[in-house]
Design goal:
By secondary structure, this protein is mostly helical. The protein has eleven helices and no strands. The longest helix is centred in the middle third of the chain and has 42 residues, at 50-91. It starts with a helix and ends with a helix. Pfam families: VTT_dom.
């Protein structure tokens, strides 16, 4: 994948970086941990401007975040609650818990979005609950921008400083990403297994 990403960036330039980061946010298997360090390495070689690389990567990443925010808005609370009534066990959430989550997100969601944008795997989907809870777009964009620029800058500067060893960034971060995926999967399975304890069947129908 390194060769393909490298060739794409060499061919398309800054627009290619933005496009790859957009796709990375929409389709997570294309990791930013490969894209931005390579772009930073190119900047260290003088092929591209470092600040322009960070701006391009952040712009593409934010576009992907906005896409998932829009998806959350389209789903909406009412539709999600209907799905929870029908498939609550597999969604691991009840209609009442959706209301509680929305209330929490409206109080603390900005910080959750900003921190979520710094966490591998979580950063892709943190925008969905922001959209579902109808967080104002301006607030969502502001917090997302801070988290996104910090993450993108970190990856780019790591590649810039490591130069030809930029692949090490992915080596460092991949175990963290894998650990987070395992934790999320374990949490999901626990929620499925304990759903009836948390949400009695009679209550779930209301």
């Amino acid at each position: 994948m390194f060769d393909w990403i490298s060739g794409f960036i060499d061919t398309v330039g800054l627009v290619g970086i933005a496009l790859l980061m957009f796709v990375e946010n929409v389709f997570p298997p294309i990791p930013s941990e490969l894209i931005m360090p390579l772009a930073g390495f190119n900047a260290a070689n003088g092929d591209q401007n470092l600040v322009a690389v960070i701006i391009a990567g952040s712009t593409g990443s934010l576009a992907g975040a906005v896409f998932w925010y829009w998806v959350g808005m389209r789903i909406g609370t009412d539709r999600l609650k209907r799905l929870a009534r029908r498939h609550g066990r597999w969604l691991t959430i009840s209609p009442d818990e959706i209301d509680q989550s929305n209330a929490w997100f409206k109080r603390h969601g900005g910080l959750a979005v900003m921190i979520g944008r710094l966490i591998p795997t979580v950063r892709t989907f943190i925008s969905v609950p922001a959209g579902v809870s109808e967080m104002s777009f301006a607030k969502f964009l502001a917090y997302s921008t801070v988290g996104t620029v910090v993450w993108t800058s970190f990856l780019t500067l790591a590649g810039y400083w490591l130069q030809s060893q930029y692949e090490k960034v992915s080596t460092w971060i991949n175990p963290i990403s894998t650990g987070i995926v395992v934790l999320i999967l374990g949490w999901y399975l626990w929620r499925v297994a304990t759903y009836r304890r948390r949400v009695p069947k009679e209550h779930d129908r209301h």
